[in-house]
Write a structure and sequence with these properties.
- The complex is a heterodimer of chains A (336) and B (353).
- Chain A is elongated.
- Helix content of chain A is 43%, strand content 18%.
- In chain A, the strands form 2 sheets. Chain A has a 6-stranded parallel sheet, sandwiched between helices. Chain A has a 6-stranded mixed sheet with strand order 7-6-8-9-10-12, sandwiched between helices.
- The relative contact order of chain B is 0.18.
- The chains are: A alpha/beta (336), B mainly alpha (353).
- Chains A and B meet through helix 1, helix 2, strand 7, helix 7 and helix 8 of A and helix 2, helix 3, helix 4, helix 5 and strand 3 of B.
- Chain B: Keywords: Cell membrane, Membrane, Sugar transport, Transmembrane, Transmembrane helix, Transport.
Chain lengths: 336, 353
């Protein structure tokens, strides 16, 4: 009996091993493999900065552009040893990744927190280990600001305000009814963009008649929008917290036999390639950019932090905004 | 016999009706179906379309569960299928040509078939516990999908492929036509031949059925292969719906929804007797429940709680013990006993997200 168990264990192990081979073969078919190779912990002696980065996931086109910017900037040529991990949108995975970076003794830890709260214990551990932490893209909600060195990212409240201000400027007085596709519940961009948009449209005659989460994904944006279209007959405008949900909403609106951009106006945030294309095609009316190219800023701040220089606590990335005309001009030269 | 069958489906159908009534109360025109752009349009049509992938996955899951197994890898297979198809389309010079689309579909289904064969091999030939055997692919499969897409969300424009997810055929969503068609064929094959009985025999007692001449091993292998293939097809429908292959999120937790659909439909996780029509109702209940959340305007913060409550109520009503009590309160005699009746609803409702 014991022998059978042993045989089975070995077979199971072999199965797993061969699966990975299968995966490797399959990867030849399309594109390079995802970053994530872990190597031995490096030391500061060689002048190379070892930076552990925990990414939220690959939930949207924006995130993909953000990941690419970081991977392309923090290279060996630029003096970095990047350890990259993908948390698949789960806080527990990020905490685990940060702990493993602490254990490996990296020089700097950087991450985009998937939600705002619950980071104090693990950031305390990093602080106790003397490893500086840099936040990118999203902030944490903590009373103790000494837990991180700097936060690089866009001002989400301002993005929501910019979207809201444009809507008020264009459509105030027409009694528009709007629906909102929120981002991941509890995530900083979802909370802040909602707040910014609401404050900007307050006082106008625009009314937000419904608001649900589409989890920043195209698929959920589409299903939620389908529900809205069933529920309400009089939707004039969709405000989506990112392009991907807006693109999902376009699909739902088209399936309902209406013309996105005309029958129902669409305003989104992010300005990724697919979104810009839809804007240029007239299916989206306005996009507020959220710049994903944080790699260079992160590299600069990481170098300063390791060299012991003072860095600013908050580095705001400048965001632009596009309407249909400017999207057509900008599209050919966009990097992402 | 028909009366018994009706009794079996009574609670799941009742749950579906209650959900539809709740929606209709909140939105009187909920059940209205209109014609727009030459196809049917309305919430019931949307529900049919969103049920399609879940129905395919749950169909395979029912057959696997009938043999006393479980297939946890279906969500990962969904992701792999979409990744393969869209990567092929994205790399081809002409993604709009029907040949390219057929090749992409063929490649994806072939790989998913191989993954299903792999699961079947582990379970039937090597005798590894189904939950462990399929867990391997559940965790590794998304990694495979990530490798194929290079960690990015692959998006592509291809008219013919998009038809799979959002097209219409004779006024009905293509996705629903495919899923319900496959379901009908499988139900016919399983129930009009001895295959269904042989599967149940395997599930009730593999050793006894083998000794009486049933080729249990081959049957087990076949159901895992079928499950992989159906999950692959579901993956194509899901990726065609949004024209994006998302290795992390495509088909996430669909294995749990599928198990839930099977259980709501009245099939015991302990194997043996299975109920395909119940699975169909179960899948419809889950898809309607998701739509209900939007129509009732339930806050995103309490959505999971709301869904859990509905599921708990449905599984409680499905539990043989509860039914026994309800039945004894009325004139009905005790329902037929099933293997390990008490264990099933409680253990699955924990898994339901």
């Amino acid at each position: 009996m014991a022998r059978t168990t042993l045989t089975r264990t070995i077979l199971a192990a072999v199965s797993v091993a061969s699966l990975f081979t299968l995966g490797a073969c399959a990867s030849d078919a399309g594109g390079e493999p995802a970053g994530g190779g872990e190597t031995d912990a490096a030391t500061t002696d060689d002048g190379v900065i070892t930076l552990g980065f925990s990414q939220v996931g690959a939930e949207s086109g924006w995130r993909a552009a953000n990941t690419k910017s970081i991977q392309d900037t923090l290279t060996a040529e630029n003096g970095f040893d990047l350890k990259f991990s993908d948390a698949q949108q789960k806080q527990e995975n990020q905490i685990q990744a940060i702990r493993s970076y602490i254990t490996q003794g990296v020089d700097v830890i950087a991450f985009s927190p998937v939600v705002e709260t619950g980071w104090d214990p693990v950031l305390q551990e990093a602080k106790a280990a003397g490893i500086p932490v840099i936040l990118t893209d999203r902030a944490v909600d903590s009373s103790d600001e000494t837990l991180y060195e700097s936060f690089i990212g866009s001002d989400f409240v301002k993005e929501g305000e910019m979207a809201g201000e444009w809507v008020v400027e264009q459509y105030d007085g027409e009694g528009y009814k709007a629906v909102e596709l929120q981002g991941t519940t509890g995530a900083a961009p979802a909370i802040d963009r909602k707040e910014g948009f609401e404050s900007a449209v307050a006082g106008s005659d625009l009314e937000i008649i419904d608001s649900q989460t589409g989890n920043f994904t195209r698929a959920e944006g589409k299903t939620v929008m389908e529900g809205f279209l069933n529920k309400h007959d009089d939707i004039d405008l969709v405000f989506a917290h990112n392009d991907d949900m807006g693109l999902g909403a376009i699909e739902a609106i088209e399936a309902a036999g209406m013309t996105p951009g005309e029958d129902i106006k669409i305003v989104t945030i992010d300005a990724v390639k697919d979104g810009m294309q839809a804007l240029a095609d007239g299916k989206i009316n306005y996009i507020v950019e959220c710049n994903p190219l944080l790699g260079p800023d992160l590299a600069e701040i990481a170098q300063k932090v390791v060299a012991g220089e003072e860095v600013e606590k908050r580095i705001v990335v400048e965001d632009l905004a596009f309407d249909q005309e400017s999207a057509k001009e900008a599209l050919p030269t966009r990097e992402y | 016999m028909t009366k018994l069958l009706r009794h079996h489906l009574f609670w799941p159908v009742a749950a579906l009706v209650v959900l539809l009534v709740a929606n209709t109360v909140a939105r009187p025109s909920f059940l209205a179906i209109t014609v727009r752009d030459g196809h049917l349009f309305g919430a019931p049509i949307d529900i049919l379309r969103t049920t399609a992938p879940l129905l395919l996955v749950a169909l395979g899951m029912t057959l696997v569960i009938a043999t006393r197994g479980i297939d946890l890898s279906v969500g990962a297979v969904v992701a792999v299928s979409g990744a393969v198809a869209l990567s092929h389309l994205a790399s081809s010079p002409n993604p709009d040509s029907p040949v390219t689309v057929l090749t992409a579909v063929g490649l994806a289904l072939a790989l998913c078939l191989v993954l299903g064969v792999w699961n079947g091999f582990l379970v039937s030939v090597l005798g590894i516990q189904p939950i462990i055997a399929t867990l391997i692919l559940m965790t590794a499969g998304r990694g495979v999908a990530m490798l194929i897409t290079g960690g990015m969300i692959t998006t592509v424009n291809s008219g013919p492929f998009k038809t799979l997810g959002s097209g219409f055929w004779l006024g009905l969503p293509v996705a629903a036509v495919i899923a319900f068609g496959v379901f009908a064929v499988v139900a016919f094959v399983v129930r009009r031949t001895a295959l269904g009985m042989l599967l149940e025999a395997t599930g009730i007692n593999p050793a006894a059925s083998r000794l009486s001449g049933v080729r249990s091993k081959t049957l087990t292998w076949t159901v895992y292969t079928a499950s992989g293939l159906f999950a692959g097809l579901a993956g194509l429908l899901i990726s065609a719906d949004t024209m994006a292959a998302d290795a992390n999120n495509a088909g996430l937790f669909i294995e749990l929804d599928a198990i839930l659909a099977v259980v709501i439909g009245g099939t015991a996780l302990s194997g043996g007797k299975f109920n395909l029509s119940g699975t169909l109702v179960g899948a419809l209940v889950i898809a309607t429940l998701e739509r209900t959340v939007t129509v009732l305007g339930i806050s995103p913060l309490v959505t999971p709680l709301f869904m859990a409550l509905v599921v708990i109520v449905v599984t409680l009503l499905q539990s043989p013990r509860m039914r026994e009590r309800l039945a004894s309160a009325t004139r009905r005699p005790t329902p037929p006993s099933e293997p390990q009746p008490a264990a099933r609803p409680d253990s699955t409702e924990v898994k339901a997200r």
